């Protein structure tokens, strides 16, 4: 069985990010920049005042100096003349500093009367002047390719005079749940049936990764139904299946998809939950076969589908970040499968995180999954661990997944 890291590497190996599309800047939150975005101008565009007051020549300003007020430079209406010796121009925050001036005398440090401005506290040369281009210069990269645009990036790109930005097209991810027992949530459920939790849960995961989920109708446990429902998959960027991945007589996802050209890259990995994970391709479309147990489907979704979708979406750092915590309870020795234990988080007196595994780790228990704040990662063959020892975790409380 493959290790988690080998499986991740093979899944990501030949994924190609989607191509670019232009979107209005105001709609670009969370989208991934498809190219470097360059400043189209200097910011500030010229030397400007950072305070309300008077543009002066610092050398003219001593306590009680009297300057002659020769004009005004409101923001957006630059003063066209020069500030000559002994002269000053009224100025405001964001106004262009007129030629000749080299400092701003803030109005709290001056007294104006009948076109005469008396200095009370002189400014230093250069004081309260924001220099042209001190924020960014024309031609400078303001948003690098591969960055998920934040509100701050959008503000920056707007200041750099962009109305449209090139971003990666959202990857289309088809989701196919399988199983005769699966019913649409809200529908009457036949004896032995179960509501389909995987499809809406995986659709939400796809959205959280920046993709567009396409929820296919659930397939019956026959190869022909699985093949029928996955037809047309060539228009998607990724196919996620859930269920039918294991070894039972009715676990037919591979055989069904082989009818429409699936070639399997690997099947089964050393991980709990998630042992029967499958990876392959139908034509150019990558396929991830997730286990049907909903916890296994979601954990494999986080560990494998999330980085795959993020890579397709153009992210340059596709994996979920890992954190360190200390164990809130003892853990037994691990077997050969990497374990992802559902856990709660609390804070130690020193502020550090404490991760405490739930006593029940059944991969069908969605309520525990929904209440989990972290996954404790236990490597294969880990020795028994004591409360207080360090452990690696994936935080779920900071994700909206
Ligand atoms: N003899 C063995 N049996 C099993 C093994 C094994 O190695 N040898 N592996 C186990 C592991 S690990 C997992 S995980 C499951 C995965 O099985 P499948 O992927 O084939 O999933 P199903 O059998 O179709 O379903 C499992 C379970 O999950 C429920 N399910 C399925 N789809 C949904 C859905 N969309 N929404 C809600 N619940 C769903 C299904 O009813 C079953 O209860 O295999 C073990 N068996
Ligand atoms: O390892 Mo299976 O993925 O839950 O029970």
Word description of this protein:
The chain has 401 residues and is an alpha/beta fold. Helices cover 17% and strands 29% of the residues. The chain folds into four domains: 4-16 and 170-312, MoaB/Mog-like domain (Molybdenum Cofactor Biosythetic Enzyme, Chain A), CATH 3.40.980; 23-41 and 141-168, Molybdopterin biosynthesis moea protein, domain 2, CATH 3.90.105; 48-130, Beta Complex (Molybdopterin biosynthesis moeA protein, domain 3), CATH 2.170.190.11; 323-395, Beta-clip (Beta Barrel). The strands form seven sheets. The chain has a six-stranded mixed β-sheet with strand order 7-4-6-5-9-8, with no helix packed on it. A six-stranded mixed β-sheet has the order 16-13-17-21-20-18, with helices on both faces. Strand 20 and strand 21 (285-290) form a beta hairpin. The structure holds ligand LQZAQKY5 and molybdate ion. Molybdate ion binds at residues 272-275, 291, 293, 296, 363. Molybdate ion is lined by residues 272-275, 291, 293, 296, 363.
């Amino acid at each position: 069985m493959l290790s988690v890291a080998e499986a991740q590497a093979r899944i990501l190996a030949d994924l190609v990010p989607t191509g670019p599309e232009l979107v209005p800047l105001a709609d670009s939150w969370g989208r991934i920049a498809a190219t470097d975005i360059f400043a189209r101008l200097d910011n500030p565009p010229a030397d400007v005042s950072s305070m309300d007051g008077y543009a002066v020549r610092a050398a003219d300003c001593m306590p009680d100096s009297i300057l002659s007020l020769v004009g005004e430079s409101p923001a957006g209406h630059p003063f066209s003349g020069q500030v000559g010796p002994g002269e000053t121009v009224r100025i405001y925050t964001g106004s262009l500093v007129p030629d000749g001036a080299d400092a701003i005398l803030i109005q709290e440090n001056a007294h104006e009367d009948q076109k005469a401005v008396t200095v009370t506290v002189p400014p230093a040369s250069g004081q309260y002047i924001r220099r042209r281009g001190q924020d960014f210069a024309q031609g400078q990269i303001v948003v690098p390719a591969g960055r998920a645009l934040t509100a701050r990036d959008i503000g920056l790109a707007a200041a750099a005079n962009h109305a449209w930005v090139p971003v990666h097209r959202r990857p289309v991810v088809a989701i196919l749940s399988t199983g005769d027992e699966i019913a649409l949530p809200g529908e009457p459920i036949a004896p032995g049936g179960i509501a389909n939790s995987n499809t809406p849960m995986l659709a939400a995961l796809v959205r959280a990764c920046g993709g567009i989920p396409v929820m296919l109708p659930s397939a019956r446990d026959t190869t022909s139904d699985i093949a029928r429902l996955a037809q047309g998959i060539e228009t998607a960027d990724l196919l996620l299946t859930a269920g039918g991945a294991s070894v039972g007589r009715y676990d037919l996802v591979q055989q069904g998809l082989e009818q429409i050209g699936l070639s399997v890259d690997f099947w089964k990995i050393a991980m709990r939950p998630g042992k029967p994970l499958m990876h392959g391709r139908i034509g150019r479309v990558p396929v991830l076969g997730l286990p049907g147990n909903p916890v296994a489907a979601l954990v494999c979704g986080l560990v494998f589908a999330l980085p795959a979708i993020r890579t397709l979406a153009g992210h340059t750092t596709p994996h979920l970040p890992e954190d360190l915590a200390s164990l809130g309870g003892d853990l037994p020795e691990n077997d050969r499968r990497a374990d992802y234990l559902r856990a709660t988080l609390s804070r130690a007196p020193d502020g550090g995180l404490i991760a405490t595994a739930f006593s029940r780790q059944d991969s069908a228990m969605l309520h525990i999954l929904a209440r989990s704040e972290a996954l404790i990662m236990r490597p294969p063959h880990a020795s028994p661990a004591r409360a207080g020892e360090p452990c690696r975790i994936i935080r779920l409380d900071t994700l909206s997944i």
